[in-house]
Amino acid sequence: MFEELYFYVRGCIGSSLVVGGLSLRLAHKKERGLRAFGAMYLSIGALFTMSALDPILELPVDLDNLLYQSLMCYQGIVLIDIALYLFGNEQKAGGRSILKRAGLGYAALLVLLPLLDYALGLESNRSNVEDSLLRAPLHAAAIQAAYAWPIAATIAALRIARWKLADITGKTHEEKRLLSALGLVILDIAAILIGLALSQRFLYRLGHLLLELLLLGGYLYVVHNPRALMRLRSEIGQEHARRISLGEDEAALIEKRLASIADKAQAVFDEGFDLRKLAALIGIPPYRLSAYFSSRRRLSFPAWKNKLRIEYVRARMAQRPDLTILEISVEAGYRSKTTFNEQFARIVGMSPSDYRRSLSRDPQAH
After folding, report:
1. What is the SS3 assignment for 334?
2. How confident is the model at residue 1 (pLDDT cuts 50, 70, 90)?
3. What is the CATH number of domain 246-365?
């Protein structure tokens, strides 16, 4: 009885989410956040519906795996879009495309992996916790591994986004709802993964039913409050702006400590020197230092580091005419002659050779 009820409820909620997802996408074509949420409900609903139909519509295992992996891949891409929408888009253009290609590659690997079962002659002796069907070892592993992509995609999207989880304070109405929903979803997914790993069918199915109910509740909330996502995005952005704003005293302190870096130039030029190491060197929290570069200097840390290196090179050219340009560039931490020449020309406006010749003509001009 429970078996039939489980698949019936799963199918009903799954088909409801498919319809709901389509309606969101069609009704809000110009609102990126709602379109992305519609796509999420559409893909998850399709997964639930596909699972519910397993007992009566048993597809060939390879086709079943292809559809399943395609939907899980799409789900990860949709979660990337949602995360980037809520957290202010990418810090640098191209991050989403890289993640998308990674997801497609991972899905293709999981589609091809079960083919090795045939090549190696492995028997179908692994029972799936969801539908009890026997699958070969690599096929069973591919089904479980598919869960990793949506989780990894969300985490990666949050890392490349302009705003951070620290910008959620939980003080506003929408943020409180988001944190509560995320907490419930994380606990529920943990239960599902535990059930999957331990082949505990009751825990696995109970987790899925709860997830379906959470998603259905989220859909109804979004439908009745279509501006909620925009308000949430705005609240996160406002908190981010407040968090990274710098007072005059703090900016002056950072300026002073950065000026002292000239005495520790060699440490800055070491390979692998990054923002965190600079923050530790001058005793400023990394996120405050990042805020300083973006709001006061209007440049990134790598750009600042390159500028410091090139200034060092110019000074050494004037001080040590006996050293070659290559020797000085290596001192400044450049391992590639091409990169050094490009950066020097971009910052100074002429090639290193032309600059050295100009020094020999008029040393006082520089």
Report:
1. coil
2. low
3. 1.10.10.60
